[in-house]
């Protein structure tokens, strides 16, 4: 069982057994780059009961902003800012308007190679932060909210500090799916994966299969919302997309689709097709991808085999197994939905 499966299991136990959160179903996974100091607001997180539980993997300086409204900066007095692993992983802090309100020494709080679980609670005029899945237990820091700074929390944002990229996992609020234009997902199977990809190109692992798994899938259906340059890769290896990898560029500058094979120093275009406006910045678009017997096909729609856009039958020596699936975007942000993939 890899760390994503462990994380999903733990979050499912949290939701179903330990402390139910009304109306939650899927997992939202978010990547934060190491080059941005700006907060990223993400919609659809489940925090309607005055607390949030999440997992994060980063080397230090995991910043979470509890805001009275979207797009407020951390300098606003209508935000509560929590920093886990502050000052090179030595402290946990609570700040308001950029001003320190509480600090506690917590050595080696974050871990760049493993997920850590935390809860944040803002109830009864206090902000509390702790470790683990159960709010109220293993508390790290506690701050009584001063009168001028009291506010409701309507939005949550986060980023990771300099030289530390981060992977975050949250439960998604089912109530928010209509507002996000995602209500069509609510009837999908369990095990959905939702991923955000930043503007800087970097393939991110979505799903890894066991090499000796007899029932490895040979197709997936997914949707993506991006302006252009959405990329999905099928790799022979669980840790790399540099060799024995076939990737599809969906909407290259939103004019073409390309199927490529990747090598450490080059990319070879195998098939391409002119398909204008296949992506949309504000609408989810559905696609499918299959790799049965080494033959790779890609098309639009929610049924495998319909509306074929690209098709390639590699010769012997070019075929490869699919052990992992990756996604990325370039020069635009992307949102991806993989229904049922985490149970495959």
From TrEMBL:
PROSITE patterns: PROKAR_LIPOPROTEIN. InterPro entries: Methyltransf_FA. Residues 35-172, 199-337 form the Farnesoic acid O-methyl transferase domain. This is Farnesoic acid O-methyl transferase domain-containing protein.
